[in-house]
Design a protein that fits this description.
Layout: E1 2-6, E2 15-18, E3 28-38, H1 40-47, E4 60-61, E5 66-73, E6 85-88, E7 101-105, E8 109-111, H2 118-122, H3 125-138, E9 146-149, H4 155-166, E10 170-175, H5 180-186, E11 190-193, E12 206-211, H6 215-222, E13 225-233, H7 240-245, H8 250-269, E14 273-276, H9 283-294, E15 302-307, H10 311-320, E16 326-330
Length: 334
Amino acid sequence: MKAFIINHYTKGDLQLVDVPMPEVGDNEVLIKVHAASVNLLDSKIKSGAFKLILPYKLPLILGHDVTGIITQIGQNVKHLKVGDKVYSRPSDFKIGTFAAFIAINENDVAFKPKNLSMEEAASIPLVALTAWQALVEKAKLKKGQKVFIQAGSGGVGTVAIQLAKHLGATVATTASEKSFGILKNLGADVLIDYKKQDFETILKDYDVVLNSQDHKTLEKSLKILRPGGKVISISGPPTPDFAKSIGAPWFVRIILSLLSAGIRRKAKKLGIDYSFLFMKANGNQLNEISKLIEKGLLKPVIDKVFSFAQTNEALSYVESGRAKGKVVIKMIKA
């Protein structure tokens, strides 16, 4: 089958090659890929930025989101069958959606929302699970609370805004002014033009920050939180607790502890809880997200759809930072 791979860590292009069909384990399903979406995580893995916490064996097929149809099931699979239309964010070390087929553990797979196309559904898993695990699991966001979601027009931002509004929160976000209309329609209450305004002079006494930007922005975010508030970062720095949760070797734990020492110290001084989130695959949570989508409470925001042959162009577009919402790769023509 055809797949886009890296043979070594690189900032260059992925290579389109022929690879063997995936072997299907007892607890896995084989999915014929109809569409995948591109995430910055793909770029970071490609460049080797995450090799300490995700030590993949190379060569590696990239891709973290998929929608498709099940063509084979393992002998222990109970809840899925051949012909089911599904979507998924495969587990770490089991990724590889930039390919014609992928085998995924049944527990990481959910039924595709009935009201979405294959391309729309492919845009959802990683960003929606990130938003869910940040706002529902970690923040335990409640009605009446205030949350600051950085980079609202990004893939995570567009979903997180909608989820936070569903949970009853007041939502502030940053974006360029040309994105304000889209974000207002998604539910954002406070819109800040990052090119002209400083969010730390506008926002005050917030309960939660979802940080997706650089270290400087993270430090500024501490200033807008009330004592007892929470900052959840999906862009780092990782914490010792995270290193422990992934079973990282001792030297990686030390490195991550040193990297996050400064921000943890500043947060503690202000009485703020700092945590790092690296989202995990979870089919049950994805099924809950599907329910919200089918009720019209969450909707995908897609910037561009590329063909499978244009996978490198799609990745370059995401790396450029110009994408508003998600970028999707379409494997199969309608």
